[in-house]
Specification:
Length: about 270
C-alpha cells in the first residue's frame, strides 16, 4: 500500500443552479490529531474508503497496521443535524475502539446563539476509548448539549454508524455463520459458533436484522428482529432456560414453535 501523504482534496461538483458544495481537505495534521500514535498513513482507499494507520507493533516494527481513519461523509447516508450535514473525521483501532474524533465541518443555525458548540471541550474527546458496540445515546452513553439535541444526536449517530460499517468491512476475521434456512449441506451452526462472534458479526450474518426509529428531536430506538424458531439462536438471545420456557408456552398457543424475537434499545 502506498505510504504517500498527505493532502487529499475532495471536490464535489454541483449541478448548475444548486449551491456550491464545501471543499473538504484532510491533511496529515488532522489524521495525526485523531490517531496520535500513528507514524504514517496510507492514501485513502478501499470500500468503504479509509486511511490505514501504521505504528509501532509488538516486534518494534513501525510498519504495523494499527487502525483506520475515515470521514463520516464517505459512508452515506449522512446524518443531518438541525440545519445540515455534520462531517466528522473518526479513528478506530483494530478491536473496534474509537481513538479520536474531529468535527471537520458543520453549519448549524444554533451557532449564532451557541457558538462552535460541537467543538466545545469534552464533546469530541468523550469518544476516545468507547467501543463501537455502544449505542452512543445522548445523556446516557455520551454527554449532550442543552438546546442542541438534534445536532448532537445526528453527530453521534454518524460516528457510530460509520464506525460499525468500517468494522464490518475491515475488522472481521471470521466468515459469518450460515443463516437459518440456508444451504443445508453447509455445517450446522452451533451455540459455540455464535458465542465466538461479536454482535456486529451476528448482524452482518443475516441471522438478525436491525432498524433505527428516530422520534422527535432525534431521540430514537434501535429495534432488533430475529426468527428464533431455531433452537441455537433462541438459546443465544434468550438463554437456554428462558428459551425453553417460551417454547413451552408457545406450544400451548398452537403456533408450532414459530417465534420472533424483538429487542429494544433506546
Amino acid at each position: 500500500m502506498a505510504r504517500f501523504l498527505f493532502v487529499v482534496t475532495l471536490l464535489f461538483l454541483a449541478p448548475l443552479g444548486s449551491p456550491a458544495q464545501i471543499r473538504m481537505e484532510v491533511d496529515l495534521d488532522m489524521l495525526q490529531a485523531v490517531m496520535p500514535n500513528a507514524h504514517s498513513f496510507s492514501e485513502k482507499t478501499g470500500d468503504p474508503p479509509v486511511y490505514t494507520a501504521y505504528g509501532i507493533g509488538a516486534d518494534g516494527s513501525t510498519e504495523t497496521e494499527i487502525g483506520y481513519v475515515f470521514l463520516t461523509s464517505d459512508l452515506p447516508p449522512e446524518e443531518f443535524g438541525y440545519s445540515g450535514k455534520i462531517e466528522v473525521l473518526v479513528s478506530m483501532d483494530l478491536v473496534g475502539r474509537i481513538i479520536g474524533v474531529k468535527v471537520v465541518h458543520y453549519r448549524e443555525a444554533l451557532q449564532s446563539s451557541h457558538g462552535d458548540f460541537l467543538r466545545r471541550p469534552g464533546i469530541q474527546e468523550q469518544f476516545s476509548g468507547k467501543h463501537i458496540a455502544d449505542a452512543f445515546r445522548v445523556y446516557r452513553d455520551v454527554e449532550g448539549i442543552s438546546g442542541a439535541t438534534i445536532s448532537t444526536s445526528a453527530m453521534y449517530r454518524g460516528i457510530r454508524n460509520s464506525s460499525r460499517r468500517v468494522a464490518l468491512a475491515y475488522l472481521r476475521d471470521r466468515q459469518p455463520p450460515r443463516p437459518v434456512g440456508g444451504d443445508e449441506t453447509a455445517p450446522a451452526i452451533t451455540l459455540e459458533d455464535l458465542e465466538r462472534l461479536t454482535w456486529l458479526e451476528i448482524l452482518s450474518s443475516g441471522l438478525v436484522a436491525s432498524m433505527e426509529v428516530v422520534r422527535y428531536e432525534a431521540l430514537g430506538l434501535d429495534l432488533t428482529f430475529s426468527y428464533i424458531g431455531d433452537e441455537v439462536l433462541g438459546n443465544l438471545l434468550l438463554g437456554p432456560e428462558t428459551y425453553a420456557s417460551v417454547r413451552e408456552q408457545a406450544e400451548t398457543w398452537g403456533n408450532d414453535g414459530h417465534l420472533m424475537f424483538l429487542g429494544l434499545d433506546g
